[in-house]
Design a protein that fits this description.
Length: 320
């Protein structure tokens, strides 16, 4: 490890934000994980210190003014707050284990990591059904949980432009891209996707342009989850540090009912567990994140129970 990840160094960073999702309820995901831990008789949430990022979820009641980047003013606030919190955790020589609602705030996590490790090259492993590379110029929905990697890559993707966002939207988008410091936080070629399978044309264009590797679900089946984890890390061999982001919708829609955008032909729970447990063994690991558990879409908290088992085993693997 860059530094030993011991139990006393892990900080659970809670981000109960859901303003960038298309459906409501992701803000309740962290509490659903805590309920799952109780139902599974686990002491997990008593073992680690927690930090909570203040949210602006109340703006959801006001309606949105930016159709091509819904609630972008609030998203700017959240990215700034998450970035500051993650940087603070790292500055204190602790490890940020982030549990978040919608996936947009993962941009803030990356910004915080890069603000601490300014001169280090950051590799990102994104386990997700979606590529999250849209911009206000390319989004079909305007939901900003589809934009975090474009934020940290400082992208507009004008080659695939279909929208004409308002001047105020563009100004806020530029502010988001420059949180922490001006310009990109990662090189797009330093992203590896696992099980991304619901990609729109503008996103596929970027995967091709930057030669971004996507290990498909079929490849995970064929090679095995352990081998895919190894190959993913090998592809980021030139990176100094690694961050892993795990969206529960990477799992098959039969498992991930309790998430906002389930997609079929995804990972099994066991594959997701093995992938995360192997990836976090990397000595370059500086952050890990789980997102998009939504108990309002679930039955009997099954999604959160599955996600919690992955969370607990991944954390134990991280420390071993």
């Amino acid at each position: 490890m860059e530094k030993n990840i011991s139990e006393d160094r892990i900080r659970i960073v809670q981000v109960k934000s859901e303003i960038a999702a298309g459906t409501r309820g992701a803000s309740l995901g962290i509490d659903a994980l805590k309920i799952a831990s109780l139902d599974l008789n686990s002491d997990y949430f008593t073992r680690f210190d927690e930090e909570e990022v203040e949210t602006v979820n109340e703006i959801l009641f006001d309606g949105f003014e930016h159709p091509h980047a819904k609630f972008i003013d609030g998203v700017y606030t959240m990215e700034s707050r998450v970035s500051e919190m993650v940087k603070k955790v790292l500055d204190e020589d602790n490890f940020p284990l982030v549990l978040a609602g919608d996936h947009s705030t993962a941009a803030g996590t990356i910004m915080g990591i890069k603000n601490h490790y300014k001169n280090k090259r950051l590799g990102v492993i994104w386990i997700d059904a979606h590529a999250d590379l849209h911009t206000p110029y390319t989004t079909p929905s305007g939901n900003m949980h589809g934009m975090p990697l474009a934020m940290v890559g400082s992208l507009d993707n004008m080659d695939c432009r279909i929208n004409n966002p308002k001047k105020e939207t563009v100004e806020l988008w530029e502010k988001i891209k420059n949180i922490g410091f001006k310009g990109p936080k990662i090189d797009l070629s330093d992203i590896v996707f696992i099980s991304a399978r619901d990609l729109e044309e503008p996103e596929q264009f970027l995967l091709n342009k930057y030669s971004i590797k996507n290990f498909t679900t079929d490849e995970v089946r064929k090679l095995g989850a352990k081998e895919v984890a190894k190959q993913a890390l090998d592809r980021l061999d030139n990176c100094d540090i690694i961050y892993v982001s795990f969206d529960v919708d990477s799992m098959d829609s039969e498992i991930s009912v309790g998430t906002g955008t389930p997609v079929k032909n995804g990972l099994t729970a066991e594959e997701a567990k093995i992938l995360n447990c192997e990836l976090v063994k990397s000595p370059k690991l500086v952050g890990w994140e789980m997102v998009e558990v939504n108990p309002t879409l679930d039955t009997e908290n099954k999604m959160a129970e599955t996600a919690f088992e992955i969370l607990e085993e991944t954390t134990n693997s991280m420390m071993s």
